[in-house]
Each structure stands twice: as C-alpha cells, then as structure tokens.
Amino acid sequence: MSELLARAASGDRESAPVGYARVLGEGVDTSHGPILYLDDITVSFDGFRALNKLTLTIDVGELRCIIGPNGAGKTTMMDVITGKTRPDSGTAFFGQTIDLTRLSEPEIATAGIGRKFQKPTVFEPLSVFENLELAMKTDKRARHSLRAKLNSEARDRIAEMLARINLFDSAARLAGELSHGQKQWLEIGMLLMQEPQLLLLDEPVAGMTDHETAKTAELFVSLAGSHSLVVVEHDMDFVERLGGKVTVLHEGSVLAEGPLAEVQQDERVIEVYLGR
Ligand SMILES: Nc1ncnc2c1ncn2[C@@H]1O[C@H](COP(=O)(O)OP(=O)(O)OP(=O)(O)O)[C@@H](O)[C@H]1O
C-alpha cells in the first residue's frame, strides 16, 4: 500500500492530500462541477509534445466523442487520465477532489475510472456468464457471511448486464466462440460490473458489423446519464449516432468542440482531419 493510501486507510483525513475521497469510500465529488477536468496538460516524449496545453472538461453523465488525426494525442490523453503517463505539467482532476496525477493506475481504476482498449480481452475458455461473474465488484468478507443472499443478488446483476449488452441468450457460450463485436460487448459488460462512473473507450466499434455498431451506439446512449463516457473513434457514422458533443484533437490540443454537424463545417477540422 502506498504511503498516501496507508494514511487514508488509517483515517488520517486531515493530512491526506486532496485526491483520496474515493479511496476513503466517499465517492467522487461532482456536486459543484464536472466529472473530469484537464487543464493545461503537457506531455513530451524526447522533446516532442504529444499533448500541448490540453484543456478539456467532461460533465457528469456526458457522452463525449474525441476525434482527430493519427498522432493527435488521443491515446496519450487517455493514458494521462488513467495514470499510465504522467503529465510534465498541468492539472487532472476526477470530480473536485481526486487528483489523478497523484494516484497509481490501480488506484485510479478503484476510484471509478474504467478503460476499454481497442482489442477485446476476455477469458476465452470461460463462459460469458463466468466472465461477468469474475469481473463483479464484491466485498469478499460480506460474501462469506451472506453467501446465499448475495449469490442471488449477484445472479440478478449478471442477468441484467447480459440483457444490457445483448448477450442474454449467449450466457452459457464460451467467450472464445463469440463474434468480435460480441466480445467487445462482453468486455464492456465486465468493465460495467466494476461500477465505474467514468468510462474511457478506445475505438470500440473498429471491426464491428454495421448491425453491431448500431447496437453499440444504443448501448452507449443508454449508459449516458448514469455514467460519463469518453469515446475515441474514427467512425463518423457511429459518432453521429451517439449524438453528443465532439472534441477534435490536433497536435496535442483541442482544435474544435461542439456538435458533430458544427465541427464538420469547421474549415480547420476539414483541413487536418475530415477532408483527407
Ligand atoms: N511512448 C512514446 N514515446 C514517444 N513518442 C510517443 C509515445 N507515445 C506517443 N508518442 C507520440 O505522441 C504522438 C501522439 O500519439 P497518440 O498515440 O497519443 O496519438 P493518437 O491521437 O492516439 O493517434 P492514433 O489515432 O494513431 O491512435 C504521436 O506522434 C506518437 O508517435
């Protein structure tokens, strides 16, 4: 356990720096502001600025798409949010109190930020049901003493998730037998079983059929409101279906932001991305 976590766990809230509300079990505080706040973030690799004074705010319950040309900094931005990459300078907050630049990757995941990478990673030899069961967030001590009750609750939660991710009829199938799109849904379901408040999704519909893409858009729209979502995507039809605000990244900064129809008309966006 890190020193800071140890301090938080010992109840030393006064001296614990900002950033430990969730670790202390109090949840992310969004009472007066956005769920994600990035301000003036710069990340350099050997002098090259992958992020250049990036400022971005995501509201609670928002569904935001991030688009932009290759090398614009989209992945680096996700890496900063999840603690994989430390910014050289700038501010990154989850809610009002959780300073992401001071937490490790596991601490950030525990705080309520879930990330889905482009390639699906499910446990192929296990069934769809077992994959969701494994991913479920449970209190092991409580499960020991209240086994029967929690088991039925757990089954209900898994059944709800199966319906939500369009896999209700595939519960007993091995994950390895699913189509690419179904594997992606299963992994999204596994992420949701962890009850994240903010979901980061990297090109979730790459390689999906048109039907799977449309179903995925429906799923994300249904998650917005109760979750906040940041979706990096190149598929403009999908982005249009999601219907949220779009941020265009270019050379590590925000080039444009607004409804898709608006950014599509922006000459600078056409020049660097859409018009190619
Ligand atoms: N670890 C690293 N070392 C050096 N350069 C890096 C590293 N990670 C990213 N870069 C560079 O930073 C820039 C931004 O990369 P990033 O992967 O964030 O872009 P992206 O918008 O996600 O692109 P894509 O759409 O191709 O995934 C690129 O020029 C990339 O080569």
TrEMBL record:
A UniProt-annotated Pfam family: BCA_ABC_TP_C
Domain ABC transporter: 36-276
Keywords: ATP-binding, Nucleotide-binding, Transport
Gene Ontology cellular-component annotations: plasma membrane
Family matches, as Gene3D superfamilies: P-loop containing nucleotide triphosphate hydrolases
UniProt entry tagged with the keyword Transport: yes
InterPro entries from the UniProt entry: ABC_AA/LPS_Transport, ABC_transporter-like_ATP-bd, ABC_transptr_urea_ATP-bd_UrtD, BCA_ABC_TP_C, P-loop_NTPase
Family matches, as SUPFAM superfamilies: P-loop containing nucleoside triphosphate hydrolases
GO molecular function: ATP binding; ATP hydrolysis activity
PANTHER family xref list: CONSERVED COMPONENT OF ABC TRANSPORTER FOR NATURAL AMINO ACIDS-RELATED, HIGH-AFFINITY BRANCHED-CHAIN AMINO ACID TRANSPORT ATP-BINDING PROTEIN
Name the record gives this protein: Urea transport system ATP-binding protein
